[in-house]
Design goal:
about 10% strand, eight-stranded parallel beta barrel, 14 helices, disordered C terminus, TIM Barrel
């Protein structure tokens, strides 16, 4: 059983949902990413995605694009990210997933990437611009290496396609909640629950929802129907807002703790309220994670 499988099995047994926290590796620097990863685990992240910066990030919205630009300017590369993973592995116990576009993997070499990532201690890989029809060469290297290759299911995926992706995905299935790029939204799409129900008919693998989830109330709502919730842009924006301050690690940790809290216990927040934009609970949750720090709640533009 892989570390990802063991994590979801343990959480399911406790009736708990996973928080999948995304950080752009190298933003603001690789040296600063390390303590952010350690703090993310300490404050409740169950899985940590480490983004690899790329010059043409077609799946990313403005917040993560800016983070990638900063990381590239700081000299971050796929090789350096994997080096960082190898140093982190002794410090953190949660699964580490590398999220990278396909070109850096091709340049690295498929076999070399799979073996190096696995040897470094990475548990999985997500390649957002690699559809399942073209993933076999990489999957042929990741599976023998023990690296889980996580696949996306989109709102536009047909039932036949959903069934195939569910069969191929390892670790968990990543449900993209909306059509478009990453970024926080005030409202969640109304058909997310239908996407989850479609998957439940064809698989028992863990299902995590990402893209557009940004507040504790949205996390609580999605946690009622999915095994996990992935949050990226809202965390990356918190890093952006506090870079250069002594409070950076603490502020990011506070926000991750606020995101995890509704996944630890049964939430009374309804899915309908979250997809309609939330109410007083959402505003209170945002204030709880930003008051006294000068931070603004994530907006749907980012």
């Amino acid at each position: 059983m892989s570390r990802l499988e063991a994590t979801f099995t343990r959480l399911r047994a406790r009736g708990e949902r996973a928080l999948v926290a995304y950080l752009m590796a190298g933003d603001p620097s690789l040296a600063e990413t390390r303590p952010l990863v350690v703090e993310a685990e300490r404050r409740g992240a169950d899985v940590i995605e480490l983004g690899v910066p790329f010059s043409d990030p077609l799946a990313d919205g403005p917040v993560i694009q800016r983070a990638g630009t900063r990381a590239l300017a700081a000299g971050t590369s796929l090789a350096r990210v994997l080096e960082m993973v190898s140093t982190l592995r002794a410090q953190v116990h949660v699964p580490l997933v590398v999220m990278t576009y396909y070109n850096p993997v091709l340049a690295f070499g498929l076999k070399s990437f799979a073996r190096t990532a696995a040897d470094a201690g990475a548990d999985g890989v997500i390649v957002p611009d690699l559809p399942w029809e073209e993933c076999e060469p990489l999957r042929a290297e990741t599976e023998p290496a023990g690296l889980d290759m996580i696949q996306f299911v989109a709102p536009t995926s047909t039932p036949t396609r959903v069934k195939t992706i569910a069969r191929l995905s390892r670790g968990f299935i990543y449900v993209v909640s909306l059509t478009g790029v990453t970024g926080a939204r005030r409202e969640l799409p109304k058909d997310v629950d239908a996407q989850i129900r479609t998957l439940r008919l064809v698989t028992t693998k863990p299902v995590c929802v990402g893209f557009g989830v940004s507040t504790p109330e949205q996390v609580a709502a999605v946690g009622q129907i999915a095994d996990g919730v992935a949050v990226g842009s809202a965390i990356v924006r918190t890093i952006e807002e506090h870079t250069g301050t002594a409070a950076l690690v603490d502020r990011v940790g506070d926000f991750i703790a606020a995101l995890k809290q509704p996944l630890r216990v049964s939430s009374s927040a309804g899915f309908a309220r979250a997809i309609e934009g939330g109410g007083t609970e959402e505003r209170a949750a945002r204030r709880a994670t930003t008051v006294g720090r000068g931070a603004k709640p994530p907006s749907e533009e980012d």
